[in-house]
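Z., the sequence and structure:
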Amino acid sequence: MSDILSERSGSILRIQLNRPEKKNAMTSNMYITLAELLNAAAKDEQIRVVLWHGAGDSFCAGNDVADFLQRPLTLPAPPRGRG
C-alpha cells in the first residue's frame, strides 16, 4: 500500500497521506512524492484545486523521526553571495 494516494477528478487533485497507523507522519520518501505531485499539479492548467488530507483521524503528526534518523534529509548548500 502506498503512503500517499492521489486521485484526479476533473479539475480537482486529491492527495491523501495514507499512514493512519502512524498518524500520517511524513517520511523522506513521502516528502519527495508530495513535491512531485504538487509540482506536476502546478504545471497542469486543468487542475484548479488540490485537496490535501490525511487518512484516519489525523491530518499529519509531523515527521517520522525513526525514518529521518535512518535517512537524514540533506539539503543543498545555500548560494554564496557576492563580495
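The chain has a mean pLDDT of 92. The two ends are 51 Å apart (CA to CA).

Let me know what you think.
H.
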